[in-house]
């Protein structure tokens, strides 16, 4: 199970906006680049003001906005004839760069074990790379859960809200990160095995 499975319903809500953006000449690549720059800027702001937990309030807002932008750029590409080879590069690299920019500042928060947070980020990158490898071997781009991109965004959004409310990080955050690590290892295994099965069939 993954929050990603709700994507079709989310896209239906966004479709009127996507049609308006296409009409005024907004391209899929422009949306992708904007989402990446927004994520980088947010990460830098959180890092710069990490001593004030309230700054984390912006993280779930940006994560949700970025999720909407990711859906919008895909719909512009597919439904308004904006697919391009450059767009494929921007889409995949943008996701990895955005995830890293948004999650890395958490490693510098008091009470967060940096090695665990860095392991989460590394596995997030590895998970997306594994998903892309499905296409390389002739399968589809794999988005299998658990703890895919949308799931990670949800977890870190909730974590940011809890920390912004004044709850101190500690043992509970370490346990959470360990659980995320284990789930992402499963994610990678599922993506590999299902891609291989898809090619075999």
UniProtKB/TrEMBL annotation:
GO terms for cellular component: membrane. This is CDP-alcohol phosphatidyltransferase family protein. Pfam families: CDP-OH_P_transf. The chain crosses the membrane at residues 21-48, 54-72, 116-140, 152-169, 175-193. InterPro entries: CDP-OH_P_trans, CDP-OH_PTrfase_TM_dom. GO terms for molecular function: phosphotransferase activity, for other substituted phosphate groups. It comes from the Bacteria. Coiled coil: none annotated. One of its GO terms (biological process) is phospholipid biosynthetic process. The keyword Transmembrane helix applies. Gene3D superfamilies: 1.20.120.1760. Keywords: Membrane, Transferase, Transmembrane, Transmembrane helix.
């Amino acid at each position: 199970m993954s929050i990603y499975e709700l994507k079709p319903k989310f896209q239906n809500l966004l479709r009127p906006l996507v049609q308006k953006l296409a009409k005024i000449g907004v391209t899929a690549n422009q949306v992708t680049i904007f989402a990446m720059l927004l994520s980088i800027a947010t990460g830098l702001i959180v890092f710069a003001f990490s001593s004030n937990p309230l700054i984390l309030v912006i993280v779930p807002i940006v994560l949700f906005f970025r999720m909407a932008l990711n859906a919008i750029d895909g719909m512009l590409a597919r439904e308004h004839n904006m697919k391009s080879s450059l767009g494929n590069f921007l889409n995949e690299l943008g996701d990895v760069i955005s995830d890293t920019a948004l999650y890395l500042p958490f490693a510098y928060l008091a009470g967060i074990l940096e090695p665990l947070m860095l392991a989460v980020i590394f596995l997030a990158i590895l998970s997306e790379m594994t998903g892309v490898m499905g296409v390389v071997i002739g399968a589809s781009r794999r988005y299998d859960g658990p703890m895919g991109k949308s799931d990670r965004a949800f977890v870190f959004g909730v974590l940011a809200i809890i920390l912004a409310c004044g709850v101190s990080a500690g043992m509970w955050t370490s346990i959470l990160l360990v659980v995320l690590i284990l789930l992402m290892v499963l994610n990678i295994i599922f993506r590999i095995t299902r891609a291989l099965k898809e090619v075999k069939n």
